Amino acid sequence: MLYSCKLKSVCNLPVIYNKKINTTGTSNTDVPLAVPGMYQLDITLRRGQSLAARDRGGTSDPYVKFKIGGKEVFRSKIIHKSLNPVWEEKACLLVEHLKEPLYIKVFDYDFGLQDDFMGSAFLDLTQLELNRPTDVTVTLKDPHYPDHDLGIILLSVVLTPKEGEHRDVELSENEVVGSYFSVKSFFWRFQTQSLRLSDIHRKPHLWRGIVSITLIEGRDLKAMDSNGLSDPYVKFRLGHQKYKSKIMPKTLNPQWREQFDFHLYEERGGIIDITAWDKDAGKRDDFIGRCQIDLSALSREQTHKLELQLEEGEGHLVLLVTLTASATVSISDLSINSLEDPKEREEILKRYSPLRIFHNLKDVGFLQVKVIRAEGLMAADVTGKSDPFCVVELNNDRLLTHTVYKNLNPEWNKVFTFNIKDIHSVLEVTVYDEDRDRSADFLGKVAIPLLSIQNGEQKAYVLKNKQLTGPTKGVIYLEIDVIFNAVKASLRTLIPKEQKYIEEENRLSKQLLLRNFIRMKRCVMVLVNAAYYINSCFDWDSPARSLAAFVLFLFVVWNFELYMIPMVLLLLLTWNYFLIISGKDNRQRDTVVEDMLEDEEEEDDKDDKDSEKKGFINKIYAIQEVCISVQNILDEVASFGERIKNTFNWTIPFLSWLAIVALCAFTVILYFIPLRYIVLVWGINKFTKKLRSPYAIDNNELLDFLSRVPSDVQVVQYQELKPDPSHSPCKRKKNNLG
What we know:
By secondary structure, the chain is an alpha+beta fold. A hairpin with a 6-residue loop joins strand 19 and strand 20. Helices cover 29% and strands 29% of the residues. The protein has 4 domains: 38-162, Immunoglobulin-like, CATH 2.60.40.150; 209-325, C2 domain (Immunoglobulin-like), CATH 2.60.40.150; 330-493, C2 domain (Immunoglobulin-like, Sandwich); 510-583 and 620-718, no CATH class. The protein is built from 14 helices and 29 strands. A 5-stranded antiparallel sheet has the order 21-25-22-29-28, covered by helices on one side. The protein has a 4-stranded antiparallel sheet with strand order 8-5-12-11, with no helix packed on it. The chain has a 4-stranded antiparallel sheet with strand order 7-6-9-10, with no helix packed on it.
């Protein structure tokens, strides 16, 4: 006869009950007992019923996230335009602690926008019977509006102990004493198993490959405007990764020629969702059509040309898709350090040595970032604490640390490694506060250009605000190492810059518009002052200056040759270089710092949706869009002038030296080769480029070079703030010794 009995804690052993609780909350005796340890949770996501409508058409595009312990462990596919979606997807999860519930969240997918929350629920794993399939119905609720009915989600779950790591225990009246030794030996095995698991996951790769996509063109797209044309653009999404193409005005056969990369997380591939839209000023963009790419059907290391028919619309999209092997991007504990291992360091140095210039030109360098700790962070919770975690980004590579709960001085001790594709990239490290039911709160950020990094030095970086214009509370300790091939980096400078597929949308800001206007005015005033100076020479305001200018004019015009143009630019670079090394730095940024006004506008997404139905408000938004365009044009023109100035001001020495090499080459070429031959070679290259490579992406090497030079605003954003001396690591050691 079996009894429902209890073992009291002996020698720090936990209390164990021989009871089983089913999903209805009733107790069953004489049922095998689940001993704490590693479990396998098999979930079948069946369907949803009567979900909340989040789109204007009265439907939603729902998908489901599963989280355990604050970490996302599964994300379902998207079911478009349905309030009763059917998924029938299976997920196999490993669970260490049954006390941590399964957190289920449902979202409405909005392409290019923040996905709408549709409800959440918790599943208590301690109430599941072992080794028995159970149908579960969870009711979705909004924590902020608990009375609202948001529908239900139907699941089938099976919870089973992992073989060799658990065993079911039945305790009889005569077995209580002997069971102590069995439980003790079990916990010893559980501890050793946990150590083996930690060894397995010390250095996981975050993704398995790269999907390179080139959007070539659209054919016979649907006309959405009254003039029989459209202003089409295309959105791509693979999981959480998004990309939006540029807008092609007034055409049904757009030519995009855009290239971008996505990361491939799943071994079997994935589904890329593609939607085409017509841009409409002042109102919601019109839907043209959608299609999908099943990556599991494509072979790797091969370029596929795809002509995709748009569903729910008209026309085709032409794409090039290439699946390549995984990049060297990883996360590990501080004890696992690639550069401290002599063999690994030697291999990395050999891979980027000058002798391997033409081996994989896209592989420019290697970046290792140690995220050690942060101190004095902002308190984001009502308890006066925060739950900070850190996000490390390099272009489209994005890795996260774990969350340290209820701490303003967290220690992460994580090492991130990245594959560098552009040495002019900027490393962004952002600290967030984790919120279970809301988006994470921003705590601080730093932006560090790779070319400004001093290898192997642990530094305390003062955290900045979102705009990177001023300090916020706290510092973060980082140690960064960069190894790269200078020749590969120089060659990559002359090709288009990689675009980020996750970027904030532009918003109208009075402060930003004013700042861009001031920057534009400053660039124009340089030209105006130069024109006044030249005119004063013609007017003989200063006879000595005018006489010198007249003699110089005669000498230059009489002896002018085309090669003298790059030579003059070389002299300007050389002059500024000697001014800098002599201590007479003429680079002025104080006025720019004063002009860096913070843009603290709040999001008005709800107001945007309500205003779509009002004609007058639509006109206001049309005016706003024009103002945003003007704001962006001012920024582009001002940035262009500032980039040229900063090239000659030696703001980025690597780029200035590269400009010197190029100008020397141009000077020699123009001196020895007649201009007609140079123009002939240039014209032949331009005319035959499309014949030689039909899908080549057009680019301008000079503009690509200038895109790597930071504007004055970026120089301020990347400028390192001086930390409080009390945060110095050396001083901390002395204080600890004291």
